Inverse folding.
């Protein structure tokens, strides 16, 4: 059932059509607080203002899914962006497709986010719900609250599903 979906490294250039990579590496930065802190500046464009929305700050606790993983569905948030920043050092899997009325399985892309990277999905970008790897993981999630319908789900037909297979990272100490 389905075809394999290759997993790419998560880079700013590769992820640009889907939103922002949130990471310190390569980011604009400068010293603040009398030199005791480095500020990595303007890492993501959080967009939640449509139809009177407001910023929500949440923690999601994700449990690993069995591998190989069959991608049966994706979701999107048409009225706002959604940022996922891991609170630990574990990598996670990101599966996305471009915005549109529906999602095409052939357009899916999979990225491996390494420790120290997060993502901010642009409004309307199709994505699989958060995929923890190897162990339960907490994520700081910044998204939109307020009026309006900000969730759409799209389910693939059984013969359209894509399969992701990656080697799970070795267990590391819980932060």
């Amino acid at each position: 059932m389905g075809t394999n979906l290759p997993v790419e490294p998560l880079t700013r250039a590769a992820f640009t059509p889907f939103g922002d990579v949130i990471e310190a590496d390569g980011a604009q930065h400068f010293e603040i607080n009398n030199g005791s802190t480095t500020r990595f500046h303007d890492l993501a464009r959080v967009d939640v203002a449509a139809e009177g929305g407001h910023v929500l700050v949440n923690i999601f606790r994700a449990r690993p899914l069995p591998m190989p993983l069959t991608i049966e569905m994706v979701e999107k948030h048409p009225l706002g962006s959604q940022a996922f920043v891991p609170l630990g050092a574990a990598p996670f899997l990101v599966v996305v497709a471009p915005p549109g009325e529906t999602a095409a399985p052939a357009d899916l892309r999979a990225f491996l986010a390494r420790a120290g990277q997060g993502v901010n999905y642009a409004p309307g970008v199709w994505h699989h719900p958060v995929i923890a790897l190897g162990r339960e993981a907490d994520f700081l999630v910044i998204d939109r609250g307020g009026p309006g319908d900000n969730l759409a789900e799209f389910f693939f037909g059984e013969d359209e599903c894509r399969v992701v297979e990656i080697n799970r990272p070795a267990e590391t100490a819980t932060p």
